[in-house]
Amino acid sequence: MTEKNITFRMEKPIAVLSRNERGYTKEINIVSWNGADPKYDIRSWHPDRQKCGKGITLTREEATALMYALKEVFEDDE
After folding, report:
1. Over residues 43-56, mean pLDDT
2. Is the pLDDT of residue 3 over 70?
3. What is the Cα–Cα distance from 46 to 56, expressed in whole angstroms?
4. Domain parsing of the chain, residue ranges
5. pTM for this structure?
6. How large is the average pLDDT for residues 34-49?
7. Strands 8-19, 25-33: parallel, antiparallel or unpaired by DSSP?
8. Which residues, at least 6 apart from 7, have a Cβ–Cβ distance to it below 8 Å?
9. For residue 53, what pLDDT is reported?
10. What is 8-77's CATH topology?
């Protein structure tokens, strides 16, 4: 198995969603991976940002769809 060189550029931090006892944070940010167009990115990050966990990336359209879906779920819970 060949190790891949993965690069990222943090375009815009948005929010820390949680932090665990080891200092890892689950965050949503706008990130460019391997020089590609920036996307909304949700994943866990090591405190020094040298390591990260698996996550998901969303286009603006996907993030908007997620926002509306969650809004509907939360409104139904009221």
Report:
1. 93
2. no
3. 16
4. 8-77
5. 0.86
6. 95
7. antiparallel
8. 33, 34, 35
9. 93
10. Transcriptional Co-activator pc4; Chain A (2.30.31)
